[in-house]
Amino acid sequence: MNGKIKKYSPVIYWVLIIALLCLFFTNDFGILDLHKTSLIVAVGIDSAGDEVEVTAQVAVPQPSQSGDSIKYIEVQGSGQTVADALNEINAKTGTYPRLLFCKLILLGENCQSEELFRMLGCFYRRNYSELTALVAMCKGKAQDMLSLPATIAPENATAIQKVLSEELKRSANVSTSTLRSIAVSNYSESRACYMPYVEAYVQGTSEPGGNGDNVGGDPGQQGGQQGGGQSGGSSQQGGQGGQGGQGGEGGGSSGQSGGSSPQGEMEFTARKTAVFADGRFAGILDERQSFALNIIENEIRLAVAQCEADGVHYTVGLRKADGGIKLKIKDGAPELTVNFKAAAQVQGAKKVLDPHNVKTDDVVRPEVLRAAEEEMKTRFERLISACVENNCDVLGIRKLLHKQHYKYYEAFKEDILSRMTVRYDIKIESMN
What we know:
The chain has helices at about 1-25, 80-95, 115-125, 140-145, 155-165, 165-170, 180-185, 220-225, 230, 235-240, 285-295, 365-390, 395-405, 410, 415-420, and strands at about 35-50, 50-60, 70-80, 95-100, 105-110, 135-140, 190-200, 265-275, 280-285, 300-310, 310-330, 335-350, 420-430. By secondary structure, it is α/β, with parallel strands linked by helices. The protein contains 15 helices and 13 strands. The strands form 2 sheets. Strands 1, 2, 3, 4, 5, 6, 7, 8 and 9 form a 9-stranded mixed β-sheet that branches. Strands 10-11-12-13 form a 4-stranded mixed β-sheet. Helix content is about 30%, strand content about 30%. The radius of gyration is 26 Å and the shape is globular. The chain has 3 domains: about 1-30; about 35-285, no CATH class; about 300-430, Nutrient germinant receptor protein C, domain 3 (GMP Synthetase, Chain A, domain 3, 2-Layer Sandwich), CATH 3.30.300.210.
């Protein structure tokens, strides 16, 4: 038997070599053929009843006399799942859609009634999806948001990515999330996650309104769905908009915050945050709540807060900002401590107190420091209240309980947010 194997081993060897070479050559030498591939740079997902609608922003090479350039087009597909919709896009383009270069996934606000991972599951199952891709929810339809003409970039996907940049995250203005961070947070003991909430408005107009305090409210109320052409719709929709929805002040008039408009190109903001509990939409945090969340969750280089002291409005820069939470069991009950320390510098004041000395590096007066501390405490209080009211543990309190006080985990894990007491340790000092 061994003799027969030795006899035919050279033949088997060469057959395997030839088979591998054939596979290599039929695969275009293992090189990515751009003419056979759709390079998807951004994906928008909208819920349409029992189906989902997917808008893929595709990069198409454009040969020219001055050299190759890139043109971006939007292709739509629909199906029972996101994978079905992508396959329909494949059929429409005649190319295979690749998600390797996808840097942005945008969920429309109509996805608020859907299970989160029904929308995102496709990206986790595909081997070549980039888990560092940014994930955000937008006001209105994702399809309309990706079709808007952008101001600060040749295509709006890049413009939105700039708004979700690392620099804005480190200034506490945006709470960014990726596919990886959402999965890690959602499948931790806290079973909660968050993502930025993107809004669009016409260049030169005021930012879209919406109080953001109605966390967990009806999506139509939060976004002013009845006004402004469904809050982020197309130019035809936005042009018919009127007043905002009953719960949101930013429904937009004549397409202002409703979507594309003949008035001009669009700008984007992402200072609000969409939060999820157990894979379900829980609500929208407003700017001040999102600011507090970002302070606790991320390393902040420089934050800016506003406060009033003696009837004067101040803009205060907070350097060396360090925030976090601590959990302990005191007298058999959970106690949460919110910590925040920073060095303050006055960046501006509505009223000049001393016209001969307006240097921003002067020692900050004690009453301004106390006002800044009260402002930060208010922001943290409103964030904690939103988490308690909606049983949404985006701060990872259950995770802390499991890690640091495991023997109490079973007793407190379901209702720790409502049973815990909260204290605040906030200290802001002058830089000089």
